[in-house]
């Protein structure tokens, strides 16, 4: 049987179309010769998930996303994916979008549930969820920090503004003059310290002698303190109490008129007699002074004493 060129061209076209379909499906992750299970999940946002993204169970790749399309006019998205593994799981298992970092893209994970009699079949729609990725976690952690940094920047700006308002030209000049005065004061202290250093250096020997004398004085004070510690203060206190008692006894005797001194202080007659005796003694001494010859006489020729001079009556 002889084929015409048109038939051959048609057969080649059909084969090319079939190869193109199989190749396109293979590139999209679909193998038309395999009996894969097809599942669906509905999302409000697929977070960058794309066709041919891997589908995993417990981290193991079991399929891939085959199609993402709009479900309705509200913008809900339906994700279609296949599972080329015979692993059994419930139709209540969660289809969760996860991952997404600085380099890698999003993936779809099936979080399996094991419920007897409710196994997932091809064409079922699984519950959906989205796990926060690295960028979302970073943004979540950095947002409070960003707010704090912004507040700190605003506070710093306000503080700088307040400083600029307070530190006008006159205030700045005053602060500058104050630092200049402090510099002069420090320089003066430095000169004073150098002078004191010179004085100390020039009088080091005298200072050594002074400290030596102070050391000796301290030793003498220690010896004196030891001497005081050895004194019988109790005995001295007892003797002092006896002396005070004797003085008190004498004072009582004088006050009561006992003894000569007591009578002299309390008896007027004794005082008058003593006063008269004193006056007579004065007259006697005056008479001896005026007429010594009456009391002491010595003469070879027996000459009589001169005339008598009476003493002064004012002493009576």
From TrEMBL:
<keyword id="KW-0812">Transmembrane</keyword>
<dbReference type="InterPro" id="IPR052336">
    <property type="entry name" value="MlaD_Phospholipid_Transporter"/>
</dbReference>
<protein>
    <submittedName>
        <fullName>Mammalian cell entry related domain protein</fullName>
    </submittedName>
</protein>
<keyword id="KW-0472">Membrane</keyword>
<keyword id="KW-1133">Transmembrane helix</keyword>
<feature type="transmembrane region" description="Helical">
    <location>
        <begin position="7"/>
        <end position="27"/>
    </location>
</feature>
<feature type="domain" description="Mce/MlaD">
    <location>
        <begin position="39"/>
        <end position="112"/>
    </location>
</feature>
<dbReference type="InterPro" id="IPR003399">
    <property type="entry name" value="Mce/MlaD"/>
</dbReference>
<dbReference type="Pfam" id="PF02470">
    <property type="entry name" value="MlaD"/>
</dbReference>
